């Protein structure tokens, strides 16, 4: 079967380990021919080119800069994505008849590319709904539904609806995510919408003595170590993160590691310069291999989501914590069900991301003893293997194709 995979992930091989490359690898392992369009931003000074292997064909499509740039350049680059993807398909994949198109949000501007291949080849279409835009931008005050910014919202909302309509199946991240989509898009009542969560191919880690790793990263060996790794921007509400850290200043039984980059990193930098905490460390990003080692040295994974979100987010970093058999403390809005799933699976704790006192209370409870952490660790890994593997995602997606063929 010929499968076309569309995303904004910049990859040239499947050596990386993430929710996209792991899924592509699973399709390859099942014997399919996989054609992927993986954009490369113009700042990298690469022209469009094709990388061919036996059954994997990656089109490195030159696009404008969409990340780490100003809003105007990002907006223009995003608006031209559709035409560039269509042009790339016409030039490099003109002789390929696709059976299935897989594509993810962000962005929502894949509509014309999906429409072109669907009409040309009669392909079936599956949307992996990783976020709900533009509503997430409205939640954070980046867009509004009225005024000048409202025009931008209305444009992207039309694009969003068009993408939903052309999709034969929409795979959502969680039950709450699914319910939100149905509630706010009544016209999708006849659409096939299901849960197809973020997933990975879990790596089997031998149980390690964390003490040598803690020494390597200059983390106190006896302290319970909490780590947050990932984006440090508006979705995480860094103001609240700082409030949580301030509540735990200089307590010897706990240690906090914040590792990442983002638009609001400077707020954490200011806090660390002012307070000079003795039980915390701020790291301005790490290469993936080093970050993986850092995670394995820690005890508890942290998730932060802004309390203003009305859309139910489901952060993919949860899976890296679970893969390392780490319990998770999630501080989120009330609309996402990630906290409910963590508590239901008995592998962590949840508090609302407006309550730094509750955060402190949970951390105090965790630090009172290590006995309960062992069970939570086992539950985290088991829940991942039972629910969030690419084998599960593959079966969810392919069951529809088997039905369509008959």
Description:
- The protein contains 16 helices and 14 strands.
- It is an alpha/beta fold and 406 residues long.
- The chain folds into two domains: 2-201 and 389-405, 3-Layer(aba) Sandwich (Rossmann fold), CATH 3.40.50; 210-387, Rossmann fold (3-Layer(aba) Sandwich).
- 42% of the residues lie in helices and 20% in strands.
- Helix 12 (317-323) crosses helix 15.
Key attributes of the depicted protein:
Rossmann fold; eight-stranded mixed β-sheet; six-stranded parallel β-sheet; 16 helices
Rg is 22 Å
Oligomer type = single chain
Total helical segments: 16
**Termini Cα gap:** 15 Å
* Portion in beta strands: 15-25%
Provide the succession of SSEs. EHEEEHHEHEHHEHEHEHEHEHEHEHEHHH
DSSP summary, beta strand count: 14
Judged by helices, strands and strand pairing, the structural class is: alpha/beta
CATH class of the largest domain: Alpha Beta
Strand order of the largest sheet: 3-4-2-1-5-6-7-8
Identify the overall geometry: globular
Largest sheet: 8 strands, mixed
Helix-residue proportion: 40-55%
- The low-pLDDT segments are none
Residue-averaged pLDDT, rounded? 91
CATH architecture of the largest domain: 3-Layer(aba) Sandwich
Instruction: Determine the CATH topology of the largest domain.
Output: Rossmann fold
CATH superfamily of the largest domain: Glycogen Phosphorylase B
What number of domains?
Answer: 2
């Amino acid at each position: 079967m010929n499968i076309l995979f569309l995303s904004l992930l910049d990859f040239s091989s499947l050596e990386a380990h993430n929710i996209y490359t792991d899924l592509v690898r699973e399709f390859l392992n099942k014997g399919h021919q996989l054609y992927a369009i993986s954009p490369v931003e113009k700042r990298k000074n690469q022209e469009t080119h094709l990388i061919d292997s036996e059954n994997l064909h990656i089109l490195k499509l030159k696009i404008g800069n969409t990340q780490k740039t100003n809003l105007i350049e990002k907006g223009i680059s995003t608006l031209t994505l559709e035409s560039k993807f269509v042009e790339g398909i016409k030039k490099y994949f003109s002789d390929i008849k696709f059976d299935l198109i897989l594509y993810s949000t962000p962005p929502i501007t894949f509509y014309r590319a999906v429409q072109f291949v669907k009409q040309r080849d009669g392909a079936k279409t599956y949307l992996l709904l990783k976020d709900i835009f533009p509503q997430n931008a409205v939640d954070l005050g980046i867009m509004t539904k009225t005024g000048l910014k409202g025009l931008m919202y209305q444009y992207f909302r039309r694009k969003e609806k068009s993408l939903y309509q052309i999709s034969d199946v929409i795979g959502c991240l969680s039950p709450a995510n699914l319910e939100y989509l149905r509630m706010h898009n009544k016209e999708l009542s006849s659409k096939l919408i299901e849960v197809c969560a973020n997933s990975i191919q879990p790596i089997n880690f031998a149980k390690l003595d964390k003490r040598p790793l803690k020494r390597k990263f200059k983390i106190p060996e006896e302290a319970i170590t909490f780590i947050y790794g990932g984006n440090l921007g508006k979705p995480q509400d860094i103001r609240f993160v700082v409030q949580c850290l301030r509540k735990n200043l200089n307590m010897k039984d706990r240690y906090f590691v914040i590792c990442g980059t983002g638009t609001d990193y400077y707020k954490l930098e200011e806090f660390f310069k002012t307070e000079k905490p003795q039980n915390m460390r701020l790291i301005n990003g790490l290469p993936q291999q080093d970050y993986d080692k850092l995670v394995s040295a820690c005890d508890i994974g942290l998730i932060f989501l802004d309390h203003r979100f009305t859309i139910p987010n489901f952060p993919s970093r949860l899976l890296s914590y679970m893969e390392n058999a780490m319990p998770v403390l999630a501080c989120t809005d009330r609309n996402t069900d990630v906290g409910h799933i963590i508590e239901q699976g008995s592998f962590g704790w949840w508090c609302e991301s407006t309550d730094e006192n509750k955060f402190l209370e949970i951390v105090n409870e965790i630090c009172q003893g290590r006995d309960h952490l062992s069970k939570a660790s086992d539950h985290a890994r088991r829940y991942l293997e039972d629910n969030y593997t690419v084998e599960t995602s593959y079966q969810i997606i392919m069951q529809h194709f088997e039905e369509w063929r008959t």
